[in-house]
Amino acid sequence: MQMAKKEKEAKKPQLRRCAICQKVGHNKSTCPEKFQQPAAKKANQPLNFFVHHVNYEPPQSPHVVNLKNRNDIWDKVQSSAPEEPKNKDFYFYHHSAANDSFSEDAKPETKFDFGPSFAPSNNIKTKNKKQRSVNIVKSASKSAEKIGGAFVSAKQKIYNNSGKILKTYFTPRRVVAAALILTIVFLAPSRAQTYYTDVKSTANDVAGNSTAGFKDLQNSTSALMKGDIGGAQDTLANALQNFNQAVDTLESKHRLLQSLVSIIPVVNSEIQSRQNLILAGQDMSLGNSFLLKGLSEIQSQPSSTITANMKILGEYLDYSIPNYKKAITELNNVDDSAVPAEYQQTFKDFRVLFSAFYNDLENISNLNQSIQEIFGGKGLRRYLVIFQNPYEIRPTGGFMGSFALIDIEDGNIVKIDIPAGGSYDLQGQLTENVEPPAPLLLSNKRWEFQDANWFPDFPASAEKMLWFYRHSRKITADGVIAVNASVLSRLLDITGPVTEESRNLTITKDNALATIQDIVENGPEKQDNKPKQILADLASVFIQNFKNLQPQSILPILLNLQDALEKKEIQSYFTDSDAENAMKQFGWSGQILSTDASQDYLFVVNTNIQGQKSDAKINQTISHQAAVDSDGNITDTVTVTRTHTGQAGEDMYGVPNIDYIRVYAPQGSKLIAASGFTWPDEQKFKTPASWENKDEMLAEIEKEISTDPQTGTRITEEFGKTAFANWVITEPGQTTQAQFIYQLPFKAFSSDDSSVNKWAEMFQSGSPISKYQLIVQKQSGVDSLFESQIIYPDKWHPVWQNGSGASLASNGAAISKSMLGKDSIWSLVMSLEKD
Description:
It is a single chain. The chain is an alpha+beta fold. The strands form 4 sheets. The protein has an 8-stranded mixed beta sheet with strand order 13-14-15-11-8-17-22-19. Helix 3 (127-148) packs across helix 9. The longest helix is centred in the N-terminal third of the chain and has 38 residues, at 189-226. The termini are far apart.
């Protein structure tokens, strides 16, 4: 009996008591007293819960279900939610439709918001402008739909599809782990391999469509840059068709499979890259659509002025640029290996070219207000336009043998005056008598307008030009624009050949400069002291052509204008401070750059005096070397090699090239040695008249330091720099080399340099760090080859460099020989080996 009783008690279930309240029926995790809940719920009461869609893992739920005692629990589960969701960035699973797409009222409002691209621009303040912005968006959106066929909806597809994959499926790590288990347990290895292959095939289809789309998009962008609106529209339509097909492929095939392959890094990376590729293509397409719509609107208003057209273009750029910016971000997130191998290099090239295209358009957009001011959109503006001939090089780009005074209002040239005698027409009208800079005494004993561009800093030369003009004609101007002869070829490339009827003369981009030069020097007007009459005659033809300019030429002209400004083929100075500051901000003012006390600087400036047009036959190479000794002292060696390719006796070009060369270095540099100079015959220098005055501006800018007794090299301080100057004469068929060796006023490394310590922290180096930077400026009108070497002492090795054409060496860096097309900067960081 006793044994039977014990066995019966052993079979009875043990009742565990709650560790908190000592009652049975629950445990401490669900104790009502712990959670301050009412009495335990009845067995048949359904369980309530709601799920927050958040990016962090929620704490453990207080609802614990005892499945041993409640077998019917899952049949009675219902869901509940807060009355009003306060956070719009989550949604509720019970709102999800059966087809796994979110209902409209349950979609997160800010999840994939591409509204900012369509929002009115912040700089449009008036009511009319706001309404116009809305119209622009509606019109451009309709244009996009017309070109691409439901473009916006296609973009919504890819955003939603990407959103579900990235937000819904790729959430907490335990979900990924569960997906991995499901893949291993429920899919046979052969079946998994089939799915893997299928996904790879789908990814390749997407890549093929998107690559074809990018090829069309590249053609569309190229057509836009050339002003071919029709071609841009056609290729854009093809691009959108390919992108939409890629979207359909992603949406219709393997959506669940895409969620599972997130655990397969290689496949997931490829899919993500190709989704970014499609998104980038669609953003670029939308940007092109806005830009096309703007150009089409300009085309529909042929009577509009330049300023009115620029205003329209600027407003559409406000909508294109944000889309282009998003596209660049998405392009940078594309792994090159996700693109088919045969297109990878093309894709890399396109990414670089598109970034440059985006920067150009952004600059045009940022300059829109300044362009309105410069072109007379805010009232009449008067400019002194200087035509420079690089064949006779001068500090700002060439001898200014001719000029024009232009009145412009609302983009229209209302008056233009081009003296037939050129710059020399002002000689007899000049009321001031001042001595010229000493080297100019080789050609004139009085400083006159045609030699006013003496300073390599263009704002300084422009102020001197305005001074001479004001003291000759008693007329002021709002600025100076210097235009090199090469710009004429740029314009003719866009507008096509120009014909001057009275001479039965047609000039093209290939023969323009030589043809005009021949007429100026040998034409019949020269005997009448009107050698520049050809320029006045051609000006009226160009003005008429610009009035009839096709709208599709506006963008190519703007892009060429920007390139010419960057290469200093055009330089400008404005008395309006906002316009002038805009030019300086973009590096288009032609000024000598300010540099820090620890930056190396080089600016080689050539000045042809009495060498006729021989610079057309000069090839120049600038070789620079910076050698650092064990104490950190830096010695620079600059060698300028000039080769005269002309033939002796050749008209205008076959004469000796007489060059007054100046090398600008960091302020405080000390000349060590110089060589390779030839002085002109002293008897050819003219003596100023006794009544000539010293020029105050010249005396203020050129501060004399000394003259090297061995070589006669003149040393001055100008524009916050030290300048070394001497003469180099190169005969036809000969090569000359001028060399300047000088020590910089700072050291490459110093123990008390706080900035060096910051660099050491940046590179996580426990060793001493040295930084070196070189800034080189290009002279307008001179195409020089440039090369450099930076050499450190033993035990120093490079850790980082930056700059075009630079490569690291064991003890420094080298800059390969290339054309110095614009102002450039190179940087180098070196580290000292520990003993």
